[in-house]
Design brief:
- With about 180 residues, the protein is of the alpha/beta class.
- The protein has a single domain (about 15-30, about 50-175), classed as Nucleotidyltransferase, domain 5.
- It has helices spanning about 75-90, 130-145, 150-165, 170-175, and strands at about 15-30, 50-60, 65-70, 95-100, 115-120.
- Strands 3-2-1-4-5 form a 5-stranded mixed β-sheet, sandwiched between helices.
- The longest helix has 16 residues, at about 150-165.
- About 25% of the residues are buried.
Length: about 180
């Protein structure tokens, strides 16, 4: 990895915390999965194909067990800038190293980095190096398989609920991110 250089405006007396970040797309297209039923029953799983989505931005720290998320109607540089500033403001007493992939909005020329935040990019095509991918898998498995939503508001309510449980449970985050600490 490249050497880390902090912005001269950054306060070097603040502790460093490493976060991993990724975005997940959630919508109204259902995903059918296996389910348990009695032998004498035929499983019935609802299905729909509505192409409406919202996006969850999440950053988690294997170090501290912290999880920080934002739900947005879009996934672009403008929303990424909002997320970065909210994350930096929430953890203003820290210097943050944010490890993320090289999505277009992560490497955009218009990315606006707060002074206490440094981006470190993962190699291309390496989602296995980002524990937020495990968070998305767990969220989908627990709340989105075999589900049909009447609206994007319903999708958002489910996301708020499940991400809220992770925000309140540092041990669950540490377990998800086991082996990802620096």
């Amino acid at each position: 990895m490249a050497s880390i250089k902090w912005d001269v405006k950054s306060d070097c007396s603040k502790p460093v915390v490493v976060f991993f970040e990724d975005e997940g797309r959630f919508g109204r297209i259902s995903k059918e999965m296996r389910c348990w039923v009695r032998k004498d029953m035929v499983p019935s799983v609802p299905r729909q194909m509505v192409r409406e989505y919202i996006y969850a931005y999440s950053a988690l720290s294997a170090q501290t067990g912290d999880c920080f998320s934002m739900i947005s109607p879009y996934c672009n540089t403008e929303c990424m800038n909002i997320f970065l500033h909210q994350l930096a403001d929430h953890y203003k007493d820290y210097r943050i190293v944010l490890v993320l992939d090289k999505a277009g909005w992560h490497i955009s020329r218009t990315i606006d980095l707060p002074p206490n935040l440094l981006l470190m990019h993962l190699p291309p095509y390496s989602p296995e190096l980002n524990p937020v991918e495990i968070l998305w898998r767990e969220v989908r498995k627990k709340e989105f398989h075999n589900e049909v939503f009447d609206s994007l508001n319903d999708v958002e309510k489910v996301l708020v609920k499940i991400l809220g449980t992770y925000h309140k449970d540092p041990e669950a985050i540490k377990q998800l991110a086991k082996g990802y600490s620096f």
